[in-house]
Specification:
With 310 residues, the chain is an alpha/beta fold. Helices cover 35% and strands 28% of the residues. The chain has two domains: 216 residues, Rossmann fold; 66 residues, Alpha-Beta Plaits, CATH 3.30.70. It contains eleven helices and 14 strands. It has a six-stranded mixed sheet with strand order 6-7-8-3-9-10, sandwiched between helices. A four-stranded antiparallel sheet has the order 2-1-4-5, covered by helices on one side. Strands 12-13-11-14 form a four-stranded antiparallel sheet, sandwiched between helices. The mean pLDDT is 92. The chain binds adenosine-5'-diphosphate and magnesium ion (MG).
Length: 310
């Protein structure tokens, strides 16, 4: 349903999106996961025709976006990273205003406003100016605005950053529901691994403008080289020991943090217990350790050598 083919976007000399290929099927909940500055917003802005790619092509429903922007925009709802609403208006009037921009009027508009208010769970506050809302509630109004014209596709760009946990849960549940009950195709960008893991069927991992992995959760976790992560804190840190750890059989990579190291282990080759034994043999005094089975965070660490929160 959504295809990005060899997409490139530069800001001056800097290539923010570097030859990205994505194919999203109808009804899919697609997650774009990557750290700040990875290029997520630039990609979704091109898909929602806010930015024009330098090269490459975008197709929606098998139609080329270029030249068909108006028609294609009518089936997409966009929730941008920055809030876009009228603070002095209440929820109802925001929804009415943006709904009318989409051509809704009369009874149809009134009906849709009421439906959307329930969908975003703001019935009690619907007549209060948006400026009196919490950040999370404002974000929910923005989602409501994007839903007014009953889009087939909804694009949400980091909708849960800096908001209260209650609104966050409401947003995640609403997206899941829209996808399940209405079959809406979703593109969801985030740098929160847990959200993408909870929400999405297929995931693209992006770093420095490049798509470095793409697949279902299971596909990503079952990569033959997928690593678990053993994080240890030890007293006698020095470069030489790190080098020795790297040479232990079954250790794929060592990432050095301030007070500890993360040791990436291929569980298909060697168990964590084996590795801990080897560390003891090297004379390392472990003061604490934790073990993390392969997940999106460990995959990201393995692919890039850094954590998503760096
Ligand atoms: N208008 C702009 N002008 C110059 N550089 C930009 C502009 N917008 C984004 N960038 C740069 O492009 C890169 C990707 O940005 P962005 O797509 O916003 O990443 P993300 O959404 O993943 O945080 C970043 O390095 C950012 O600083
Ligand atoms: Mg962004």
């Amino acid at each position: 349903m959504i295809e990005a083919i060899n997409l490139i976007k530069k800001y001056g000399d800097y290539t923010a999106v570097n030859n990205v290929n994505i194919n999203i099927k109808k009804g899919e909940l697609f997650g774009l996961l990557g750290p700040n500055g990875a290029g997520k917003s630039t990609i979704v802005s091109m898909i929602s025709s806010v930015l024009i790619p330098d090269s490459g092509e975008i197709k929606i429903d098998q139609k080329t976006l270029k030249g068909n922007e108006r028609e294609i925009k009518s089936i997409i709802g966009v929730v941008p990273q920055e809030l876009a609403l009228y603070e002095t208006l209440n929820t109802k009037d925001n929804l009415r205003f943006f709904g009318s921009l989409y051509g809704l009027k009369g009874k149809k508009l009134n009906k849709r406003v009421e439906e959307v208010i329930d969908l975003i769970g703001l019935r009690e506050k619907a007549n209060q100016p948006v400026e009196e809302y919490s950040g999370g509630m404002k974000r929910r109004v923005n989602i409501g605005i994007a839903l007014m014209h009953n889009p087939q596709i909804i694009i949400l760009d980091e909708p849960t950053v800096g908001i209260d946990p209650q609104s966050r849960n409401h947003i995640l549940k609403t997206i899941k529901r829209l996808n399940k009950e209405k079959g809406i195709t979703v593109i969801y960008t985030s740098h929160y691994m847990e959200e993408v893991e909870y929400l999405c069927n297929r995931i693209g991992i992006i770093d420095y403008g490049k798509l470095i992995a793409l697949g279902t959760k299971e596909e990503l976790k079952n990569r033959t080289d997928a690593c678990d992560v053993l994080q240890i804190t030890y007293s006698n840190v020095d470069e030489e020991i790190v080098h020795k750890i790297e040479n232990i059989q079954g250790v794929e990579k060592v990432a050095i943090l301030k007070q500890s190291v993360k040791i990436l282990i291929n569980p298909k080759k060697r168990s964590a217990i084996d590795i801990v034994d080897e560390l003891k043999k090297l004379g390392i005094t472990i003061t604490s350790f934790s073990y993390q089975e392969v997940n999106l965070e460990t995959i990201f660490l393995q692919l890039t050598g850094k954590t998503l929160r760096d």
